[in-house]
Design a protein that fits this description.
Elements (H helix, E strand, L loop, with lengths): L9 H6 L3 E8 L8 H12 L9 H27 L6 H20 L4 E7 L6 H10 L2 E8 L6 H15 L7 E4 L7 H18 L4 E7 L3 H5 L4 H16 L6 E6 L12 H10 L4 E5 L8 H17 L4 E5 L6 H14 L11 H8 L3
Helix pairs in contact: 2-3, 4-12, 5-6, 7-9, 7-12, 10-11
This protein binds the ligand C=CC1=C(C)c2cc3[nH]c(cc4nc(cc5[nH]c(cc1n2)c(C)c5CCC(=O)O)C(CCC(=O)O)=C4C)c(C)c3C=C and fe (ii) ion (2 copies).
The site of one fe (ii) ion has 2 residues, from loops.
Length: 360
């Protein structure tokens, strides 16, 4: 096997218009809700030094000796409870989002443009996706990790995997990356609309809980901007919704292991709210572009129990933006903002250009 792949035809490519692609990147998910598949997935995910910052000689024996044997079965049961006929919700939802964005982008760009989905861990992998784009003659790529807030553990890891995959291409394409969109006004607007739609059909609760995935506190102290991005998203969203400080709380979920993570913790806060007499909460997870194990099981099921057992009476989970038109539209605008000057992304009509970029 040659180290560098290239199966295109340079002469043909040099003489014809280029092709361009948007690659949406999400975390990745097991291939099946079985202990073996979950173990394979967790082994890849949790051996990434971006995710677990500890000396390898110390961490790998713990991972293989304790974490994988203990966690794979438990985690597989949780995955079983949310698995759909289309597979893992994270994969199926990300694929639907990519397909919807592909349709919208093709409708408004002079193209040839395509949207693809790849995962940092598991399938569809970044190396396989980039090799396919290379074979298809794609010469420009915009990479969009589906994490509104930058963290080295999520976005950083996605960009590492992308860089690694580019490393095996003989003629890598021109590349742009979006590192975060935590305060993008169209994104904030999309979040606000999905909450307002929920309010229109369910009414409001006593508190709106904005729950973000956590990271170890140590990483934030070392300079990871994630907490600042989450705080900025929460503040902008609350401002847009006209929510006074006392009407919402911001929390961090999904902690793993014994070290301190970003606080306040979602599960602890929900129990405290119930104990303090708060009867009704609505929980939304603005850091998750697509619903997954951490929202559908941990938030919609597990934390509901915490809240109700502690005396709460009404608990509603507001779903992620997924492939709702508000998200497709806001990501379309984000893509067009980051592909200015790339001819494939030029708007088809003046009307498109004005709708997407605003009047010049
Ligand atoms: C142990 C360290 C972990 C860090 C740091 C971390 C950061 C982080 N994760 C996401 C998004 C997702 N995480 C998901 C699942 C998940 N996360 C961890 C651990 C860390 N995450 C584990 C072990 C798991 C697997 C599930 C489990 O066993 O509990 C998912 C869902 C995946 C799915 O298949 O549905 C997402 C999405 C972000 C955004 C982030 C940092 C900001
Ligand atoms: Fe995670
Ligand atoms: Fe979890």
């Amino acid at each position: 096997m040659p180290r560098f792949t290239y199966s295109g035809r340079p002469e043909a490519e040099l003489s014809r218009a280029g092709k361009a692609a948007v690659v949406l990147i999400n975390l990745g998910t097991p291939d099946a809700p079985t202990p073996a598949a979950v173990r394979r997935y967790l082994a890849q995910f949790l051996s990434d030094p971006r995710v677990i910052e500890a000396p390898r000689w110390l961490w790998l024996p713990v991972l293989y000796g304790a974490i994988l044997p203990l966690r794979s079965g438990r985690s597989a049961r949780a995955y079983t409870s949310i698995w759909t006929e289309h597979g893992s919700p994270l994969l199926a939802g990300s694929q639907r989002l990519a397909a919807a964005l592909d349709r919208e982008l093709k409708a408004c760009c002079t193209g040839p443009v395509e949207v693809h989905l790849a995962m940092t861990y598991g399938q569809p992998s970044l190396p396989a996706t980039l090799a396919q784009l290379d074979r298809d003659g794609v010469r420009r790529i915009l990479a969009l990790p589906l994490y509104p807030q930058y963290s080295a553990t999520s976005t950083g890891a996605a960009l590492d995997a992308l860089a690694h995959a580019l490393g095996s291409l003989r003629w890598p394409p021109e590349l742009r990356t979006i590192t975060d969109y935590h305060d993008n006004p169209d994104h904030i607007e999309a979040l606000a609309r999905t909450i307002e739609t929920h309010w229109a059909s369910h009414g409001r609760a006593d508190r709106l809980v904005l729950s973000f995935h956590g990271i170890p506190l140590r990483y934030a102290k070392a300079g990871d901007p994630y907490r600042l991005h989450c705080q900025a998203t929460a503040r902008r969203l609350a401002e847009r919704l006209g929510l006074p400080d006392g009407d919402y709380v911001m929390t961090y979920q999904s902690r793993v292991g014994r070290e301190e993570w970003l606080k306040p913790y979602t599960d602890v806060t929900l129990a405290e709210l119930a104990a303090a007499g708060v009867r009704a909460v609505q929980v939304v997870c603005p850091g998750f572009a697509v619903d997954c194990l951490e929202t559908l099981e941990e938030i919609a099921v597990e934390n509901r129990q915490h809240f109700l057992h502690a005396g709460g009476q009404r608990y509603e989970y507001i779903p992620a933006l997924n492939d709702q038109p508000v998200q497709v539209e806001s990501l379309l605008k984000l893509v067009l903002q980051h592909t200015r000057g790339w001819p494939e992304f030029a708007a088809r009509t003046a009307v498109d250009a004005e709708a997407l970029h605003g009047a010049a």
